[in-house]
Specification:
With about 325 residues, the chain is mostly helical. It is built from 14 helices and five strands. The protein is globular.
Length: about 325
């Protein structure tokens, strides 16, 4: 087979352009980020034509990537699996030898190794929400963290909400996939759903919309539910609020890490993630899912509300111990 020469940068752009027709923007961004390391490796090795790739060179990349930054076993698998997909696409355009993707090795990862266990515990969420309800009621940080905790929704879904998606009469939110106007959601059309809200959360949203929300639209003339004076809230801002709000020194009685808040780096607004106790938006989702399950909400209801399959729910989100699950099943057995 005659290979057609192509440089790494051109190949990546062509690959991503094709992926855009079948994958969400978040997926495209992830592939661009991971394969950015591959481009860097090619540059350091002087590889200007991907025709030169071999199984041995791909193994050299794997060893190099393992030593660039800290990679968990699961992280290394994700990296190499993405490279394998890229190499298989290169085969389709005659850029590398056929079946080269079969030589891309990645580690075997057990279910436990592939599960991230960081979550916001309900015992921490409760005092945090009580603090913001008392001292920063209906502020954007308060509305954001309350929404994430009570609905179990993903960061992208929360950001995608418009004012019109909130129905105060039926007490629900409608999640919609709108990539053409800048707000795609996970699972696209399959991620669209109605999410029921509690009366307390509706009251908070009503007060936010009436008294605190800036009267703004985004660049597509839509009215975002979570808004700043500049328009729709950015993903980085949502992450920042989650890290800031979950620092115990903010809502608790002090620092559990024996730090002095006056000279703690994490006390700076942009450094909140450096607090060992602060958590990301996904930890809100995982903690909320576990809280609902611990509260005897049926798994099917949690699965539908959180838009996650039963299998993924069990592996990645349900943090109950085997004994906790047994005790909950016993409650039902006692009634038979």
């Amino acid at each position: 087979m005659n290979l057609e020469p192509i440089d790494p940068e051109t190949a990546l752009e062509l690959y991503l352009a094709e992926k855009e027709t079948e994958a969400a923007k978040a997926t495209i961004d992830s592939h661009r980020s991971r394969l950015g390391f591959f481009l860097r490796w090619c540059d350091e090795r002087g590889i200007e034509n991907l025709n030169e790739l071999t199984g041995r060179r791909l193994h050299e990349f794997r060893l190099w990537r393992r030593n660039v930054g800290e990679l968990s076993k699961a992280g290394e698998k994700t990296q190499m699996d993405t490279v394998r997909v890229f190499v298989r696409w290169l085969e389709s355009i005659d850029a590398v030898e056929q079946d080269l993707h079969l030589k891309v090795r990645s580690p075997n990862v057990t279910a436990d190794e592939n599960t991230r266990e960081v979550m916001l515990d309900a015992d921490d969420a409760k005092p945090m929400l009580e603090y913001y309800s008392r001292y920063e009621y209906a502020s954007l940080p308060h509305v954001t963290v309350s929404l994430l905790w009570h609905t179990m929704m993903r960061l992208g879904a929360a950001r995608a909400l418009d004012v019109e998606d909130y129905d105060p009469e039926d007490q629900c939110l409608e999640l919609r996939h709108r990539p053409e106007t800048g707000t795609p959601i996970k699972n696209k059309k399959h991620g669209e759903r109605l999410v029921a809200l509690s009366g307390e959360l509706c009251l908070l949203l009503d007060d936010w919309l009436r008294d605190r929300r800036p009267d703004v639209t985004d660049s597509y003339d839509r009215e975002p539910l979570l808004a700043t004076a500049q328009g729709r809230v950015a993903k980085t801002t949502i992450r920042k609020y989650c890290y800031q709000c979950t620092r115990p020194c903010v809502y608790g009685d002090g620092c559990p890490h024996d730090r002095n808040p006056d000279d703690c780096d994490a006390n700076e607004p942009d450094n909140a993630s450096q607090c060992p106790s602060s958590v990301s938006p996904h930890a809100f989702r995982r903690g909320s899912i576990t809280h609902y399950l611990n509260s005897d909400v049926p798994e099917t209801a949690v699965s539908d509300r959180a838009n996650v399959s039963k299998e993924v729910l069990d592996q990645h989100y349900d943090q109950r111990s085997k004994r906790d699950k047994m005790q909950q099943r016993r409650k039902y057995l006692n009634n038979i």
